[in-house]
Amino acid sequence: LTSIRYPGVQRGSYAQLSEKHVQHFRSILPSERVVTDADDVAAYNVDWLRMVRGASQIVLKPKTTEEISAILKYCNAENLAVCPQGGNTGLVGGSVPVFDEVVISTSLMNSIVSLDELSGVLVCQAGCILENLDSYVSQYGLMMPLDLGAKGTCQIGGNVSTNAGGIRLIRYGSLQGSVLGVEAVKADGEVIDCLSSLKKDNTGYHLKHLFIGSEGTLGIVTKVAIQCPPSPKAVNVAFLGLNTFDDVLQTFKEAKRGLGEILSSCEMMDLLALDAATSNLKLQRPIGEFPFYMLIETSGSNGTHDEEKLTNFLESSMASGIVRDGTVASEPSRIKSMWKLREGITEGLLHDGYVYKYDISLPHSSFYAIIPELKTRLPAEKVGRICGYGHVGDGNLHLNVTTRKFDAAVLKMIEPFVFEWTSKLKGSVSAEHGIGFKKTQYIHFSKSQSSLNLMANIKKLMDPKGILNPYKVLPAQH
Ligand code: FAD
């Protein structure tokens, strides 16, 4: 067996699924949670971007940590490879099987364990959908410390396993800080209880970090303890039009100074990125046409004070000429439609055909330079769109090129060039989406050989047979 889309990748020497295995899974889980019907399994074999397609014949849907433990213990003993899957919104092909791995879906592990209203610590199962968690904690005056365009489908276990970033990282920081503890199951079925819900706990190694961002290669996350901040009393959003990228940077600098503690998001998009949402999803642009746009959000505790601060910031930015036009919203429905423009870009791009997607971190001074560079490198008649958007406040650019259909020649012109460029500027080849299946051969651009060796040793220690999410994260030679 070789991968359908990746002919160079060889299947590992794992066991093939047999009737004996299926029968055993039916002794662990009720029959309806052992899915073998080809039509029902099909959706679990394809990723959100429809770029990686596996050939798994089985999906297991456990509801408890004990069930996951029993499944993994058996798979390890039988040498069956597994692929953990959450909401399947990952953008690097990590969440789907490459060959015939057993899919372990956490979608039925969706219970809340506890919420401490005073500390704001939520403990829940890994399969809870992010948006549902946000609605739940909002009843107690709290919010989830992360937010992303896939919130209606992605699960907290997937978020933790990818160390997801998103649109509020600038305010609430990386998940590595907000996640206080995790419970996870190792490849051999052993349950690792690091489910501390304490803000401070310096007792030995911080083992939770083995699971935050390891993309299902070191264990399956079953429970998460996460710190939820109080929900803001007032939220305001400004949608701005700018002429140059230098103006974008200047505006970001002014926003940090002028808005200070209430700044909760600072996003940018170029005209072609915004156009993917307006033209392809038929969304309305709130201001005229500009080469660049910014979406700046404030969240605070005093509506009048926050609105005044934002209006002052906007007035002075427009008076100095760095912002050419702008509009401010404080009503939830208008805020939502402004956010829809930014969050709809990922989906809008898919409507172009094939998307070559890059998620890179760069120093602010060289953040946007790759876009004009690619415009000169790639023949205009071959590509539909070359655009950039992203979390400018975090130095994270989403660079996208689209063509009607996959074109190997275009890919060759982009890769490894984009990664070499990023590496030369001391950036990261994956700012927040992870490595998954699609970026393994490029990880060395952002990780030293000594780091890769240590990663391989940790993998061997935690999963000696390599059954957990094979072909992902670590480069093939490891
Ligand atoms: P999946 O896609 O199912 O899995 C992702 C990886 O985690 C896989 O390797 C999988 O094997 C592993 N995994 C999943 N659950 C578990 C578990 N319980 N235990 C162990 N391993 C597990 N990402 C960002 O960081 N920031 C963004 O702003 C952002 N915006 C997005 C917008 C859109 C429209 C879309 C489609 C995606 C976006 N993403 C973003 C990417 C994606 O949503 C995140 O990576 C998300 O955290 C994945 O969660 P999931 O539940 O869908 O995980």
TrEMBL record:
Transmembrane segments: none annotated. Catalyzes the oxidation of D-2-hydroxyglutarate (D-2-HG) to alpha-ketoglutarate. Also catalyzes the oxidation of other D-2-hydroxyacids, such as D-malate (D-MAL) and D-lactate (D-LAC). Exhibits high activities towards D-2-HG and D-MAL but a very weak activity towards D-LAC. Belongs to the FAD-binding oxidoreductase/transferase type 4 family. It catalyses: (R)-malate + A = oxaloacetate + AH2. This is D-2-hydroxyglutarate dehydrogenase, mitochondrial. It is an enzyme of class 1 (oxidoreductase). It holds the Pfam family FAD_binding_4. GO terms for cellular component: mitochondrion; peroxisome. Homodimer. The keyword NADP does not apply. Its main location: other. It is found in: Peroxisome. Keywords: FAD, Flavoprotein, Oxidoreductase, Peroxisome. Its cofactor is FAD. Its EC number is 1.1.99.39. It comes from Coptotermes formosanus.
